[in-house]
Amino acid sequence: MTTTGEEHTTAGTGPWWWVRWRSAVLDGGLALASAAECAGEGVRFANDAGLPVPVGVAFGAIAGSVLLLRRKWPIAVVLVSIAITPAQMGFLMGLVGLYTLAASELPRRIIGALAGMSFAGMLIVTFVRAHQGVVRGDVTMGDWFVPFISITTAIGMTAPPVLLGLYVGARRRLMESLRERADSLERELQLLAERAEERAEWARNEERTRIARDMHDVVAHRVSLMVVHAAALQAVARKDPEKAVKNAALVGDMGRQALTELREMLGVLRTGEGADARASSAAVAPVPSVPLAAVGAAAAAAASRAADDSVDGPCLAELDELVGQSAAAGMVVELSVHGDVRDYAPAVEQTAYRVVQEALTNVHKHAAGAKTHVRLAHRVSEIAMQVENECPPEPGDVSSVRLPSGGNGLLGMKERVAALGGVFVSGPTDAGGFRVSAVIPA
Q1: Using CA atoms, how far apart are residues 188 and 62, in angstroms rounded to an integer?
Q2: Full domain range(s) for residue 46
Q3: Considering only CA atoms, which of 56, 53, 63 is closest in space to residue 31?
Q4: Is the separation of the CB atoms in 283 and 251 below 8 Å?
Q5: pLDDT digit string (tens) for 311-358?
Q6: How far apart (Å, rounded) are the C-alpha atoms in residues 374 and 438?
Q7: Is residue 255 part of a domain?
Q8: Which of 56-60, 150-154, 234-238, 282-286 has the lowest mean pLDDT?
Q9: β-bridge partners, 425
Q10: Domain assignment of residue 242, yes or no
């Protein structure tokens, strides 16, 4: 039996083996029509066989009602129609049975065998009946009439229902295949939409992580240096006004660089000198112990240059300036470069710069006053960098500022280097210091 996708969706709503009530009503009507036909033909069968008429009518009604099982057992229906063919009854059952059999999902060899048996039975019975009519004189045609009428009747009772059933079965299977493909395509589209949403969410998380990492690198380093200079400014403001002015200018420069890098990362349009000056002044404002007007003027002048300067992304050529800023903040730092200096991809240079920058920031935070060595090596297919600080001095030896730490510096450096396929290693040294090493493919 062949069922369509629509029938599958409504499975269980009909009685017994029918999937729909409409199918049950149709088969019931066909079975009643077949039973009535066979019962009427049973009268002639009873007269020819010498049986009581009620027996022939009952036999025909029972045989015809077998059509009710056509969806469940189409082979049985066809076999019964073949069996009652000699009694010249069950023509409707034969037609509907062959159609149902051909439209089913049974193997073609079974369908062909049963169709051949039905054809042979109809051919033989028609041939015998026509020959008897010619012999009795009921038919006055020539000798050609008997084979012609036999073959024509057998083909007419067998070929049309079989061909129609094969066509309907193929069409049903095609519709089911198309429906399955549509369902599969819908599931695939839904899966692709879910994956696209997951990729979009992953991309958003990656972008948030990248922005947070970049802002951490910029803010942590620049602001750390600003705090160190502000502390030194506070210490010497009353004693050495010239040095205080110099430190204030350095604080302004740090604020300008921080604002410029943040603007480049976030893509913020410049809103004028006043807004930048207010932002830079806010960075200097937490130092209330500076009473000199010259200090404020120098800081404001340095901050007012933020809107006019534009600095490209960090690169290895700016390492000297980076190290100089840490040295100006009181750190004893040495920079050594090995190998032939050459240009790298912007992502490689920015990552190398950020690693050194964050390592120096960590020294300011956790080992203030410790001597630091920055080493950069240009190799054939990679670039290596190492920032190592010695054991920090005793707390009483160096006046340092307590800086907060978010604990994300090392993790951010590792993520940056790993994103380029490099290797990142960090940890304490045997001498009591700390070492940060990274190797990035060039």
Answers
A1: 52
A2: 5-194
A3: 63
A4: yes
A5: 456 888 888 888 888 888 778 899 999 998 888 998 899 899 989 988
A6: 12
A7: no
A8: 282-286
A9: 437
A10: no
